Amino acid sequence: MTREAYQAQVYLAYASWAEVEGFPGIAAFLYKHMHEEREHMFNFLKFINGRGGKCQIQAIDAPSGDPKDMNDCLQRTLQQEIDNSLCIDAIVNLAHEEKDWATFNFAQWFVREQIEEETLVNNLIDKFGLAAQQPDHANLYALDRDMTSAPQEIAIPRDEKV
Ligand code: FEO
Q1: Residue 140 domain-assigned?
Q2: Which residue among 53, 79, 113, 125 has the highest number of C-beta atoms inside a 10 angstrom radius?
Q3: CATH number of residue 81's parent domain
């Protein structure tokens, strides 16, 4: 739960950084994702309390400094999501070991969510890479503009239809 709160802090920090650096569209996308991470935190809280546990609300670590450029920002975002996936995997492994099928079932939603989120960030990295190659940066402007209304959900590769 605290890890998801940390994810939200990182998205907040990167969104604020992107806004100041002149990427309002990417900033808007990251701000929206901050809300999604807070929802994840809340999902954990409700699950723990609802199953007879009691959440301990803990301090959230500060994000580790500004990215050096947008590519660095997106690469660090991807790494955050990969690290988060490993935390979810640890819950799945423990639930399986303990034969705690309620938690195992709960965690499956997050397994899928992490596949989706890694795909989402990977796609953004690809688009940014293509746009940044253009000498006049016109595509970068268009990419940033489009990110303002970009969805937070995406079909994961195994579900895509051709
Ligand atoms: Fe809730 Fe992106 O991890």
Answers
A1: yes
A2: 113
A3: 1.20.1260.10
Average confidence score pLDDT of the chain:
93
Q: Which residues line ligand 1 (CB under 6 A)?
A: 4, 7, 37, 40, 81, 84, 117
- CB 128 within 8 Å of CB 70: yes
Residue-by-residue DSSP string for 10-42: HHHHHHHHHHHTT-HHHHHHHHHHHHHHHHHHH
Q: Which numbered atom of ligand 1 lies nearest the CA of 40?
A: 1
Would residue 161 count as lying in a domain?
no
Residue 159 lies in a domain: no
Region label for 154, one of left (φ > 0), alpha (ψ between -120 and 50) or beta (otherwise): beta
Residue 33 CA, closest ligand 1 atom number: 2
Tell me the CA–centroid distance for residue 118 and ligand 1, in Å: 9
Residue 144: give the domain boundaries. Answer: 2-154
pLDDT in tens, 109-161: 999 999 999 999 999 999 998 888 887 777 888 888 888 888 777 777 677 77
Counted domains in the chain: 1
Atom of ligand 1 nearest to the CA of 85: 3
In a domain, 54, yes or no: yes
Higher-pLDDT residue of 157 and 86 is 86
